[in-house]
Specification:
The complex is a heterodimer of chains A (665) and B (367).
Chain A lengths: L8 H12 L3 H14 L4 E7 L5 E6 L6 H6 L27 H8 L1 E7 L5 E8 L2 E9 L3 E7 L6 H5 L4 H18 L4 E6 L2 E5 L6 H15 L1 E8 L2 E8 L11 E5 L2 E2 L3 H11 L11 E6 L5 E2 L10 E2 L2 H17 L12 H5 L6 H19 L4 H13 L18 H12 L48 H12 L1 E6 L3 E5 L3 E6 H18 L6 E11 L2 H9 L1 H6 L3 E4 L4 E8 L7 H13 L4 H17 L9 H12 L14 E5 H7 L5
Parallel strand pairs in A: 1-7, 11-13
Antiparallel strand pairs in A: 1-2, 2-6, 3-4, 3-6, 4-5, 7-8, 9-10, 10-13, 11-12, 14-15, 16-17, 17-18, 18-22, 19-21, 20-21
Helix pairs in contact in A: 1-4, 2-6, 6-7, 8-9, 11-12, 11-21, 15-19, 15-20
Chain B lengths: L1 E5 H12 L13 E7 L2 E7 L3 E7 L1 E5 L1 E6 H9 L5 E6 L4 E6 L2 E6 L16 E6 H11 L14 E6 L3 E7 L3 E8 L7 E6 H10 L6 E6 L3 E5 L3 E6 L18 E5 L1 H13 L10 E7 L2 E8 L2 E8 L1 E4 L3 E4 L1 H9 L6 E5 L6 E5 L5 E5 L2 E2 L1
Antiparallel strand pairs in B: 1-5, 1-7, 2-3, 2-6, 3-4, 4-17, 7-8, 8-9, 10-15, 11-12, 11-14, 12-13, 13-26, 15-16, 16-17, 18-22, 18-24, 19-20, 19-23, 20-21, 24-25, 25-26
Helix pairs in contact in B: 1-2, 3-4, 5-6
Classes of the chains: A alpha+beta (665), B alpha+beta (367).
């Protein structure tokens, strides 16, 4: 008896479904992609019970005629590819021709479609892969496809579905991503009869971002627009303040396809490295456009992975896009924002209410802690520092002239009572340099003056206006005193600014060291007494061959001997203590991931050196030292974060402070 | 076991053998010092399975026996004892009493049976050498011993004898130090690699110029015997780098200079080269054939200094790691030396003007 059976089409489709249809969200994904490919401008997605009971996708696309409507359900049926050559240039979303057949194999599907300017449409019904009927139906332009009872004939897979609301969440996330890619299409997601996501479809990406993440996040993101040779990078880069604990909020589209890519993640990580603490990940929504001939998307049935033809070019494009954006922006930390992670999903809160929420949260911190003991105050400030946020919109307020007695009075009394803060009486500008005796309240004052820090410095380079404004505010701010011998307090016309002296100094030294190391003299090649032969794999030798120039720049002198051997004539002088073979392999490995490990190691050493050399918390700084520090700080590329990613500058709006004291409500 | 000795002598002997006691061994007995009392005298031993040191102690041996005592504890106790006279004895339970004045320590000891035997250097060739000379030879080469463990043969000095001369060579991949000494006639031919660590210890214990030292060597071990102290070390096996082919016979540039003047100029230059920043070079250039300009430039500032020299051949302008020059020039004792350069990539070699007593070779930095 023959043991090998030819599977029926129905069984084959049910097996194929396992790859394409994993959960309701994957059904929704396939259907939305189909709708988009049909040229829809408005797509509505209805789900019930997490999509398990019902998924209905309605579009106003081109529809199908009767023959096509039926053919659509057969295997490898697609309108998108006709010949193999078409695979070379895939612009449409789906192309494998598996989706509908697979879905129909595991659910009860009803398709209602109508060609434009025709009155009679087609209705097709298929259940578990079995064709039930095809008939004419009345119709409006577009397609309505209804999927009921997903996996009704696949108990094994049904069992592995998550709870309804979890599945609904997957679908929501999916729809959000479509909203981002296609701001020109109006999406509507209805869960159990309640609309939960509606996008305007007006083609504005920022509006799309807004309807998903809410005002908080939109305020905290910077627009990215960058082109490097054939790679175009657009999208939104979150400021460091809304960094997350995981990569979950990094949404990357390559040619409008949501993908995961190690190369891109690494580029993002490296661009943000100077701004973020370890273990924090930037909020990112990026749209990368690469000529479709240079990527291979046909790697995985879910198309969630792509291969780039040239990894390093993609890496560089992303890295520079983000680095440029970050460098040009004001990233001053501002305390008191709600943690954006929690606020992000709250789509309904409008801009004002969330700001208020933010400040009231802060004021509570301070109110609770200020009356009794210093450690509480310190804790409150620490809290405020760690929960700190950035807000670009507020910099436009710099022009507002507001009185500042409130701050001075309350803080001088509040803190001096406990003998820790140094508050100094305001001195007229004419007495800038003279030492004015400090306020009576300051019974343990430590001999500092209240001076205004003026500067006639000019900025090197052309920072963005935001940043320039913020920095000139910093330079013109009056020095109030030092809190806990650690935090420099400054007062500008409209804000109260706190600078962590250690972090600031550390950053200044770090940048100096980095600068020095960037200069050409830094990497010197030390010749070896005899060239050292190193055996490598063929791939490694090829790496050497294709990176000769780069290796030369990194102060190596390497000759190729054969397929498996190289000789090293010179190595970087600072690395002369290390095992040369190990060093070469390490460097090759880091070249491989387009991410210079060697340089990073160096920067790590520099950060440590800077940390050691910098003034510490509790070192008392003289007024002139403070002035110097702030001057030096303002010319840095990134004065907002120390090399370890902690904030350096925290800023309270005067109006926020007034709110604490209920002067304004 | 029982003996009486002087506290200071005991402290000295302990500190010598301690150099060979491993500090963090998984075998606790190796953390100890072996005390051996025989009718010949008292001997202390430290051994980390690579280097072993035995020191004879001037003491009144009253009762034979042996015991192992924790090295660190023993050293600290003896150093702090109140009186000069120390009595040490053990009972049958290996409890060690250390008695000085009115202070009586009782310390648990370990049985000497578990202590590893230092290998005997049998059927050995031997060379008798003056302690002062060997001490100098070690001092003048050991700085160039490599610490890169991926090339084990370079972790030691090559010690060789061709019948009349004894030669020591150290190479660390970027520089070479060679020292040669004429010793006499009909010496045994030998060639072996001595671990840098053992040589370092030998260098420390070597004393008077006029006292002799006997060097014994077998296939696997070397023994330095001063009579009072014996240091045994495993030899590094393997083929040493063929250094003779590296040493250029002639140089494209020949410079005669006082090593002292050159050393102090380079030391001054390195003042502005931050110590943690080994990357900054010192620049040697020759504007004419009577001047060597030593200069350095870092973000701290610059130094330019002229050293009078006599030059023949090409004038050069090359960067070097100042450390390598300083290490070599510091150990050159004699008068003027010859420094040969071989272009901007080739080796630079420092030699005596006439003899071939020493040679220091350093490689430049690429511009």
């Amino acid at each position: 008896m023959s043991r090998i059976n030819q599977l029926s089409e129905q069984v084959a489709n049910a097996i194929a479904a396992g790859e394409v249809v994993e959960r309701p969200a994957s059904v929704v994904k396939e259907l939305i992609e189909n709708a988009l490919d049909a040229g829809a401008t408005s797509i509505s997605i209805e789900i019930e019970d997490g999509g398990i009971k019902l998924i209905r996708v309605t579009d106003d696309g081109c529809g199908m005629d009767k023959d096509d409507a039926y053919k659509a359900f057969s295997c490898h049926a697609t309108s998108k590819i006709i010949e193999l050559e078409d695979l070379e240039a895939i612009y449409t979303m789906g192309f494998r021709g598996e989706a509908l057949a697979s879905i129909a194999a595991v659910a009860k599907v009803e398709l209602l479609t109508c060609l434009p300017n025709q009155n009679i449409g087609t209705q097709v019904r298929i259940e578990g892969g079995k064709h039930i009927f095809t008939s004419e139906a009345s119709g409006v332009r577009g397609t309505i496809i209804t999927i009921r009872d997903l996996f009704f004939n696949q108990p094994a897979r049904y069992k592995f579905l998550k709870k309804d609301h979890t599945e609904a969440q997957y679908i929501t996330i999916l729809c959000e991503r479509f909203v981002l890619i296609r701001p020109d299409i109006s999406f509507k997601l209805i869960n159990n009869g309640k609309p939960i996501l509606i996008s305007p479809g007006n083609g504005n990406s920022k509006d799309a971002l807004y309807c998903i993440y809410g005002p908080e996040v939109v305020e905290q993101t910077l627009s990215v627009d960058y082109k490097q040779s054939s790679v175009i990078v657009r999208g939104f880069a979150g400021k460091p303040a809304i960094a997350r604990k995981g990569r979950g909020e990094q949404t990357i589209f390559v040619n409008d396809r949501l993908i995961r890519s190690k190369t891109i993640s690494a580029a993002i990580e490296q661009a943000y490295r100077p701004y973020l603490m370890k273990g924090r990940f930037a909020f990112i929504v990026l749209f990368v456009q690469i000529p479709s001939a240079l990527i291979d998307v046909n790697v995985h049935p879910q198309k969630s992975e792509v291969r780039f033809w040239n990894d390093s070019e993609v890496f560089r494009a992303i890295f520079h896009a983000l680095q440029n954006t970050l460098k040009q922006s004001d990233l001053t930390s501002e305390p008191g924002h709600l943690d954006p992670v929690t606020s992000a999903t709250d789509n309904k809160s409008d801009s004002d209410s969330s700001k208020q929420l933010g400040s009231s949260c802060l004021s509570e911190n301070v109110m609770i802690s200020s009356p009794n003991n210093e450690s509480d105050i310190k804790a409150a400030i620490d809290n405020a520092l760690t929960a700190s946020d950035v807000d670009p919109s507020k910099n436009s307020d710099i022009g507002k002239m507001l009185p500042h007695e409130l701050l001075s009075l309350n803080y001088s009394q509040g803190f001096n009572k406990y003998g820790k803060a140094n508050y100094f009486k305001e001195a007229p500008l004419s007495e800038l340099s003279s030492q004015t005796p400090s306020d009576n309240h300051a019974d343990r004052q430590l001999g500092m003056d209240h001076v205004s820090i003026n500067s006639n410095m000019s900025f090197s380079g052309e920072p963005d206006k935001d940043k320039r404004d913020a920095l000139s505010e910093l330079l013109q701010a009056r020095f109030v005193g030092v809190l806990f011998a650690t935090y420099i307090l400054l007062e500008s016309n409209s804000a109260f600014i706190i600078i962590d002296q250690h972090a600031a100094h550390e950053k200044i030294i770090y940048e100096r060291l980095v600068d020095r190391n960037r200069s050409k003299d830094y990497l010197k090649a030390q010749y070896l007494i005899t060239p050292q032969l190193i055996r490598l794999s063929r791939a490694e030798v090829l790496m050497v061959q294709s990176n000769q120039d780069r290796l030369n720049e990194l102060a190596f002198d390497i000759d190729l001997i054969g397929d498996f051997e190289i000789t090293v004539r010179a190595v970087p002088s600072f690395a002369s203590d290390s095992d040369i073979a190990v060093l070469v392999r390490d460097v090759l490995q880091s070249l491989d991931i387009k991410n210079n490990h060697l340089e990073q190691d160096i920067y790590h050493h520099l950060a440590t050196a800077a940390c050691k050399a910098a003034v510490k918390a509790n070192d008392l700084l003289d007024v002139s030292e403070v002035q110097g520090l702030i001057k030096d700080l303002t010319i840095l590329e990134n004065p907002y974060h120390c090399p370890h990613g902690r904030p350096i500058i925290v800023r309270y709006e005067k109006s926020d402070i007034e709110k604490w004291f209920k002067r304004i409500v | 076991m029982k003996f009486i000795c002087s506290r200071d002598r005991l402290t000295e002997a302990i500190s010598i053998v301690q150099k060979a006691v491993s500090t963090r061994s998984t075998l606790s007995i190796l953390d100890g010092i072996l005390i051996d009392v025989t009718d010949k005298g008292v001997q202390l031993t430290g051994y980390d399975l690579e280097t072993g040191i035995e020191a004879q102690l001037d003491a009144d041996a009253l009762e034979s026996g042996s015991v192992v005592i924790n090295s660190k504890l023993f050293g600290e106790i003896v150093r702090k004892l109140p009186e000069e006279e120390v009595i040490i004895e053990t009972d049958e339970r290996l409890l060690i009493s250390i008695i000085s004045g009115s202070s009586v320590f009782s310390i648990k000891g370990l049985s000497a049976e578990g202590y590893p035997k230092i290998p005997e250097v049998k059927d050995a060739e031997k060379i008798i050498i003056m302690q002062g000379i060997l001490k100098d030879m070690i001092r003048q080469t050991i700085f160039a011993v490599s610490t890169d463990e991926s090339r084990p043969t370079l972790n030691g000095c090559l010690f060789s004898c061709d019948g009349t001369n004894v030669e020591m060579v150290a190479i660390d991949g970027f520089r070479l130090a060679l020292r040669k000494q004429q010793m006499g006639m009909d010496l045994p031919i030998m060639k072996f690699i001595v671990p840098g660590k053992a040589l370092h210890e030998v260098g420390r214990i070597l004393g008077g110029k006029d006292t002799e030292l006997i060097v014994y060597s077998s296939v696997n071990h070397i023994l330095f015997d001063t009579g009072k102290v014996r240091i045994v070390s495993r030899l590094i096996q393997g083929e040493y780098m063929n250094y003779k082919s590296i040493l250029p016979k002639t140089g494209e540039t020949n410079m005669t200079v006082s090593p002292g003047a050159m050393l102090s100029a380079i030391e001054r230059a390195s003042l502005i080269i931050l110590s943690e920043d080994r990357r900054c070079p010192v620049q040697l250039s020759m504007p004419n054939d009577e001047t060597l300009v030593i200069s350095a430039s870092t973000e701290l500032g610059t130094l330019r200094e002229e050293v009078p020299v006599r030059i023949s051949g090409e004038l050069i302008d090359i960067d070097f790691n100042p450390r390598y020059f300083i290490d070599a020039l510091r150990v050159i004792d004699d008068g003027d030396i010859s420094v040969q350069f071989n272009g901007s990539n080739g080796p630079c070699i420092m030699k005596p003007l006439e003899e071939e007593d020493f040679a220091y070779l350093v490689l430049p930095l690429r511009r």
